[in-house]
Design brief:
The protein has 74 residues and is mainly alpha-helical. Helices cover 82% and strands 0% of the residues. The chain has helices spanning 3-20, 26-46, 49-70. The chain is elongated, with a radius of gyration of 13 Å.
């Protein structure tokens, strides 16, 4: 395995872990967004731009979810 493959494996594994833990708190949602960004970076570096694009969209979705959880409830 080369370095790029290991990076991709770790970033996608982090996505799975933090997605599973999202209900425990907003910091896990933020960690999921960061893992999505890393996975998107992996996709673009590997040359799989559709994967990178989808992961970028997931990053934005997760950041919006995190922001909504950080807003005080009225």
């Amino acid at each position: 395995m080369d370095t790029l493959t290991i990076f991709g494996f770790l970033s996608v594994s982090a996505m799975l872990l933090f997605y599973a833990l999202e209900l425990r708190g907003p910091h896990y949602v933020l960690a999921f967004a960061a893992a999505c960004a890393l996975s998107g970076t992996y996709g673009f570096l590997q040359g799989a731009w559709p994967f990178g694009l989808v992961e970028t969209v997931w990053t934005v979705v997760a950041l919006k979810r995190w922001a909504s959880r950080m807003r005080p409830s009225s």
